[in-house]
Here is the input.
Amino acid sequence: MSAMERHYLRREVYEFARLMEDKLREHDEDRGVDGWKECDWGWLLDRLEEEMRELRMVFGKIDLFNDDEYGNPRIASEAADIGNFAMFICDVLGLLDGRNER
Here is the structure.
């Protein structure tokens, strides 16, 4: 894989990463820019499962087939939380330190 291919992000991946970063920045002041690094992976996994429950609750409150001003932003927000906690777990386990590049 060329260097150019390695750095290419699909539009959807890029947009989702931006949602994740927006969610992280909401808490920079109170939690720091990398507060998860001191967390235990088991605790992070519990929080990931809690975020999954929150996303399921949002789906239970909305009508997916209608443009929902409440639901769509909440789905994106909860999904970004899930993505962030999955990233936190990979990070504290040392899986994002560049050793796993293809």
